[in-house]
Amino acid sequence: MDADQILNLTRRDFLTTAASGLGGLALASLFQADNLLAGEPGAARQPLSPRAPHFAPKAKQCIFLYMEGGTSQIDLFDPKPKLNELNGQKLPDSMTEKVRFAFIQKDSAVLLGSPYKFHRRGQCGTEMSELLPNIGSCADDIAFVRSMHTEAFNHHPGELLMYTGVQTLGRPSVGSWVTYALGSPCQNLPGYVVLTAGRAPSGGNTMFSNGFLPSAYQGVLFHNHGDPVQDLNSPLSTEMRHYGFDALRDLNQLRQKVVGDPEIAGRIASYEMAARMQVSAPELMDFSGENPATLEAYGVDRDAGGLKTIRGGGPDAFKVFARNCLLARRMVERGVRFVSIHHASWDHHNDLDSDLKFNCRVVDQPVAALLKDLKQRGLLDSTLVVWGSEFGRTPLGENRAGFTKVTGRDHHPFAFTTWMAGGGVQGGQVIGATDELGWNIVSEPVHVNDFQATMLQLFGLDHTKLVYRFQGRDFRLTDVKGEVVRRLLA
After folding, report:
1. Which of 220, 265, 277, 287 has the fewest Cβ atoms surrounding its Cβ within 10 A?
2. Which among 41, 52, 325 is positioned nearest to 185, based on CA atoms?
């Protein structure tokens, strides 16, 4: 560098140019902070390289079953005989005077019992609704949490809280946090995959976002029809695609040397993953090698059986959700770290009877088949299966203005049910309890952040130490809260 060049060197050039020395140190520091720097050659271009957890894990992978809209715990998981006894009666005003509802008119609202029978299932004897007989057959492997609660009152904030730990936009999803912390042993598929059925997610891709984490950790949405990802089948020859990817890699590497942006490493890795997926994805989606008994168990060719609904996605939801459950098992077999299966919608403000039956028929058979299939293949011990929703439904019937008949339930964030199975979870038990109406929690309350802390614990991750520095602050999935629910751990 001659004298004129030195005089024209800007402060930005001095700090970011690798030739200055300081730029190289800064770039290395950024890579280290983003888990993009390791000892082996090329590690900076492999953000999904497997990494060690904080301590010995029980779970290695996760299948996150998300029932969007707010599943009715009173009709599915938390039997309330007293509520049935008091059906049609009013609650004392003191119980509702400070409660916010989405649509319920407090002055005339009355209790709404459940018409469904509950049965004890498995050796553990956990009571479950007749609407989920197949999942009920797996009760000894499931740990139910009947004392979940949240501050979120509406759907999108509630979904964000369940997925990202807070109600605001811009934070990484739980799947992004797990793949950021541990990488992924699968070289030919994304570390975090999202499958959907029914209606589109109300919050779009914000629930599956990488937030401020590098883009390599975002959830990759697979389509239900046609190619699972865009541009999977290219008209170009294999050789031409190879040249194109090489050119993109070289250009990105040159740009990375100039600006020192670690995000470019994620971009390079994404292009390389795309190239490998053109070979691996078609094989993943091909069920021809599956045993016919397995396909029948999942119900991949089911139809709606005459059921109709304004929610739940229509008749094709049966086949789509079943295929997604089977795909999730196939992804786990291939090493994908985190799979979300998102089904919408369970937002039963009205037509609860018909719509709840429809949705339960959509999910009951495939979810049970998934649990049994994982167990039979020796994968359940290392695969955490989670059932979640943003909140529950009210013990009060929804008497929305303008409706002549009460046929549904409103949002209920104060007490609802989720469950876990496999991956180091102590199955065959119930955590927490609600009062005789299902209105409030009476023992062992579990906040959404507690649930998330427990998920990370099963992966061998201390939720207080899994942090990412952004804009001068250390962020984590559980924000500033969260306690591990020890009773859930085997």
Report:
1. 287
2. 52
Give the per-residue pLDDT at 268.
62
Amino acid at 246: D
- 248 within domain boundaries: no
End-to-end CA distance of the chain: 64
Q: Quick check: helix, strand or coil at residue 130?
A: coil
| Residue in the block written with tokens 């590497």 | 253
Provide the CA 304 distance to its chain's centre, in angstroms.
25
Rounded (10°) angle between helices 316-333 and 263-285: 110
Note the pTM of the prediction, 2 decimals.
0.86
* Per-residue pLDDT, 308: 83
Torsion of CA 412, 416, 420, 425, to 10 degrees: 140
Q: What are phi and psi for residue 64, nearest 5 degrees? A: -105, 105
pLDDT of residue 46: 78
Say what the pLDDT of residue 32 is: 47
Q: Structural domain of residue 177, as residue ranges? A: 56-236+284-488
Phi, psi of 63 (to 5 degrees): -115, 115
Contacts of 69 (CB under 8 A, 6+ apart): 155, 311, 344, 345, 346, 347, 348, 389, 390
Q: What is the DSSP code (8-state) at residue 57?
A: -
Query: How far are the Cα atoms of 225, 308, 365 from residue 359, in angstroms, in the given order?
Result: 21, 10, 11
Residue in this structure with the two tokens 């496999």, named with its chain if needed: 422
| CATH number of the domain enclosing 405 | 3.40.720.10
What DSSP string runs through 351-418?
-HHHHHHHHHHHHHHHHHHHHHHHHHTT-GGGEEEEEE-S-EEEEEE---TT-SS---EEEE-SSEEE
Res 3: pLDDT:
46
Main-chain phi, psi angles of 267, to 5 degrees: -65, -45
Q: Is residue 375 part of a domain?
A: yes
Q: What is the pLDDT of residues 336-365, one digit of tens each?
A: 999 999 999 999 999 999 999 999 999 999
Tokens of 185: 């042993």
Structural domain contains residue 1: no
Residue 51 in tokens = 């990494």
C-alpha–C-alpha distance, residues 489 and 466, integer Å: 19
Quick one: pLDDT at residue 248?
Answer: 67
The number of CA neighbours under 13 Å toward the Cβ of 120 is 4
Nearest to 203 by CA among 192, 212, 194: 194
In three-state form (DSSP H/G/I as H, E/B as E, the rest C), the secondary structure along 327-348 is HHHHHHHCCCCEEEEEEECCCC
Sign of CA dihedral 429, 434, 437, 438: negative
Tokens of 423: 């991956």
Residue 235 is predicted with a pLDDT of 61
Q: Is residue 93 part of a domain?
A: yes
Q: Name the domain count of the chain.
A: 1
- Render pLDDT for 48-66 as a digit per residue (tens, 0 to 9): 999 999 999 999 999 999 9
Backbone angles phi, psi at 388, to 5 degrees: -135, 165
Which residues in the chain come in under a pLDDT of 50?
1-9, 12-44
CB atoms within 10 A of CB 372: 16
